[in-house]
Design goal:
Blueprint lengths: L4 H21 L6 E6 L5 E6 H25 L3 H6 L1 H28 L5 H19 L20 H25 L6 H29 L1
Antiparallel strand pairs: 1-2
Helix pairs in contact: 1-2, 1-4, 2-4, 4-5, 5-6, 6-7
């Protein structure tokens, strides 16, 4: 995989933006910055100002380095690089998602405004799920992307069938995340959890059933 500015500019932009935000926000942040919200949208977790301004940009940089390193260790490199476009898009989305959450939490810490982070996060995750669902069937068999079970990794046919189904379950799961913002508790919790189970569990079970059928 060739590393050049064209493929890396967005990730670099996200990290530099996070550093700039940290330098601007540090003098204006309180000693303890909100870091977690419950399903009622109430703050139930804090982190120190230093931890917020150093930890989150550091996490963004760590994720970026991890994404760069993964292809080096991929046993099925040929298949992996045939899906490299999807891999880079997922990386960019993750970097953008981290930057968005950092911007929101920093703004809340600086201004004290009660932004609806309980709606922002589900919407962003829902978009991610729908995005994954639309491209999932295009991923070739590998050890780092996609629905990786012992059965999908053992059969290209099972891999293809499972990822075709997974495309639908991820889209439906993403829609449940997005719809959840219209409801209060407990549905704003139940709907996303249902989306996660649908997206993650159904394809795994199907991959086992499909593999058993192939072996018979």
């Amino acid at each position: 995989m060739k590393i050049n500015f064209r493929s890396e500019w967005f990730s670099i932009f996200c990290f530099i933006s996070a550093v700039i935000i940290s330098l601007w926000a540090y003098p204006h942040l309180p000693a303890m910055v909100p870091s977690h919200w419950n399903i009622q949208g109430q703050i139930d977790g804090y982190m120190t100002r230093l931890g917020h301004t150093i930890g989150v940009p550091g996490m963004i940089l760590g994720i970026y380095i991890l994404f760069l390193a993964i292809p080096v260790f991929e046993p099925r490199r040929q298949n992996f690089f045939r899906s490299i476009g999807f891999y880079q898009m997922i990386r960019n989305f993750m970097m953008g998602f981290m930057l968005l959450i950092y911007m929101v939490t920093t703004w809340i810490g600086v201004t004290g405004e009660a932004l609806a982070i309980g709606k922002i996060v589900p919407l962003a995750v829902g978009i991610l799920f729908i995005f994954i669902g639309n491209y999932l069937s295009q991923i070739k068999s590998n050890f780092f992307m996609g629905i990786r079970t012992p059965w999908t990794l053992s059969s290209d046919t099972v891999w293809q069938k499972t990822h075709r189904l997974g495309g639908y379950t991820f889209v439906i799961g993403g829609l449940l995340f997005m719809v959840a913002v219209l409801f209060n508790e407990p549905w704003n919790f139940y709907l996303p959890m249902t989306g996660i189970l649908l997206a993650a569990l159904v394809p795994v079970v199907y991959s086992y059933i499909s593999f058993r059928q192939e072996q018979q």
